[in-house]
Design a protein that fits this description.
The protein is mainly beta and 202 residues long. It has three helices and eight strands.
């Protein structure tokens, strides 16, 4: 399944979110509840810390794919350069029957997470369309965060080991002809295989 990532309007990047309530009560921030997952790839191992405390829905969805072995044998298939870095994108492309139903959108305005270097986030065509595909940033991209005008993408964790592997994937060869629309020239050739995705013990 091809998932397209579009940058939100640049004009919205600096716009602060409007206050949602005048209540003096301050909600208690979500506590750290991190779940580590290892992605063993043909380029090396990446270890993620998924933020179940702040993004429970998105984390549960990702863990269901991990625990079900559905990422095993899939791939990182896209490298998009942006600024002094970019993103690498992976997910299920071999068999649509492995895909679960789309999940609700956990906005960064709600979770408090940001699209910084090392962040893992869900690829989607808009709120409520994310399934298995995800991307990892090698540079800060604040345009992926929610604003008053744009829903943004659903960040749900970060890389804690193996950023050099993510960088290696971003630098891997791409096809000059494969990919549709804005994705043309961003498709890895060959892809980077995810041999195994494993939930790590605390």
């Amino acid at each position: 399944m091809m998932i397209r990532i579009a940058l939100p309007l640049l004009m919205a990047l600096a716009a602060p979110l409007a206050a949602q309530s005048a209540s003096p009560t301050i909600a208690e921030p979500a506590k750290d509840d991190l779940v580590k997952v290892a992605l063993d790839t043909s380029a090396g191992r990446i270890v993620l810390a998924l933020d179940r405390g702040r993004a429970p829905l998105t984390t549960a969805n990702f863990l269901a794919y991990v625990d079900g072995g559905k990422f095993d044998g899939e791939s990182f298939y896209r490298a998009m350069r942006y600024g002094d870095g970019g993103i690498v994108q992976g997910g299920i492309r071999s068999d649509a029957r492995k895909l679960a139903a789309p999940i609700g959108h956990e906005s960064t305005a709600t979770t408090g997470l940001k699209h910084l270097r090392g962040t893992i986030s869900m690829a989607s065509l808009g709120p409520g369309t994310a399934k298995s595909d995800f991307f990892i940033l090698t540079t800060d991209i604040p345009g992926f965060d929610a604003t008053a005008a744009e829903p943004g993408f659903a960040a749900f964790g970060r890389v804690v080991e193996g950023m050099e592997i993510v960088e290696k994937i971003l630098a891997a060869p791409v096809s000059p002809t494969k990919g549709e629309g804005s994705m043309k020239g961003q498709m890895l050739e060959p892809v980077i295989t995810i041999s195994k995705a494993t939930r790590l013990k605390p």
